[in-house]
Amino acid sequence: MPDLSAVTALVIEANPNMRTQLRNMLGESGVDKVQLAVSAGAAVRKLRETRFDLILCEYHIGDGQDGQHLLEDLRHNNIIPLATLFIMVTGERQYEKVVSAAELAPNDYVLKPFAADTLHIRIARAVIKRDALLPTYNLIDAGDIPGALRECIEGEHKHPQYLLDFLRLRAELHISAGEADEAEKVYQQVLELRAIPWARLGLAKALYMRQRYDDAEDLLTGLVEENDQFLDAYDWLARTREAAGEMAKARDILARAAAVSPNRLSRLRRLGAIALEMDDSHTAEAVLGEVVRKGKYSDFRDPDDHVWLMQAQIGNGKLEEAAATLRDLDRTMASTERGKLCTALSSAMLHGKLGDRAKAKAAVESALTESRRLGKVSLSLKQQLAQACFDHGMEADGSEVVLDIIRTADTPRVVENTRKMLDTRGYSNLAQELEKQVHHEVRALVATGAEKAKAGDFDGAVDEMLSAVGKMPNNVHVLFNAALALLRHIENRGWNEQYADQAQRLIDRVRRQDPNNARLPALKDFHATLKAKFGIRDIKV
């Protein structure tokens, strides 16, 4: 058994008697560096400030959250590292509900009632396993995906008892790198060993990334039919249907998931956004009202939620309710950076509907000022801001916002929805002109970089293309040519580890954005050829 005296722990438990009992049990196991949290919010605040080796969390923690939701929030928002152990304390009914259907599962579950020695064995077992996986975790945290993949393969041989854990990590790393074909092979390998639901879900994700939506949907439909608690499968099924353009089906599957698990804010937000896109204001208002209400208890509340709830309320003609939502936003989040933007944009929406064009236009101008000052704004808010500009005769400002949307759009549907917004306002010609302008910008940026490389200014070519990536971070053509500029630099100036890593990251981004890009294999081969030329060893994974 490992020595647990150095382990630091956070106990998350609303019941004071149970908190004391868990703390005493940890003490009997040698874990005496223990802090306590009575709610999810209190836990998040502690975890933002302090890193713990172990989190011991009761499944029911109140405030509309459970331990599974908290774990997902902590992992998705990178508040805890992979090396932090998360052990759930739960009753048998909750265990049966989540153990086979969680993509992000705790390191272990302890079923109530239990004795101190049971807890000690579970913690010790989790620590031993964590230590075996720790070298891989450290490489992942450092952003070294190739190194982490190699470490996974070594770990599979050194620690065969954790083979499935290393295979799962390896597949997830391939997914994060956009290597759907490699991930698919690993998930198939797992499924040959055992029919594990998470491996089937992972295989569906790989198929989704390869745009094989029908095959992904078949797998995901089977998963939710077999286990109606498999919430991650619902989410990916909705995403698959959305990508295939089946918005009503995506909305309906998310509604089913929300009925099973009504407290997951990210799922409710997505459902509300799809409903708004479909002009289903009634569904959107009901769902987004819950998002705003539940968000009051969450450390991950978002002022955007009030904007979308107001949009739904205005769409349903409920102007008094919209005004109340605006007052709540102004009272609770107007002092934050994004809150100021959301308040101004919401004011513009409401005053515009009330017919006070002067106040509405002033609010749009304020929103523009806040968006420029803030810099990084979500694409959905940019779309709403562009719409407000055109609705109030501010064509030049609206055009600038639309140009920014087209330059930074991460999916073709974002551009398509922006085009539809302009079309419905009589600006179809402007939409074509703005898209053509961005197309010319891309060609000019790429041409400038290519000319510098042709003239032997490889440093200048790299600077030019990396600057272009900053301006258009999701444009596949720009990403591809930036990677090519980095590789041309290496080809002509010698091996540069930093440039090689940057090129790999850009290639991964191209792969994620456009997995069927016909020029991508040649770029990957060029990268591999340069490694061979300069004697850079890279273990095949």
UniProtKB/TrEMBL annotation:
PROSITE patterns: RESPONSE_REGULATORY. GO terms for biological process: regulation of DNA-templated transcription. The keyword Repeat does not apply. CDD domains: REC_TPR. GO terms for cellular component: cytosol; protein-DNA complex. It holds the Pfam family TPR_19. One of its GO terms (molecular function) is transcription cis-regulatory region binding. Keywords: DNA-binding, Phosphoprotein, Transcription, Transcription regulation, Two-component regulatory system. The keyword Endoplasmic reticulum does not apply. Residues 8-127 form the Response regulatory domain. This is Response regulator.
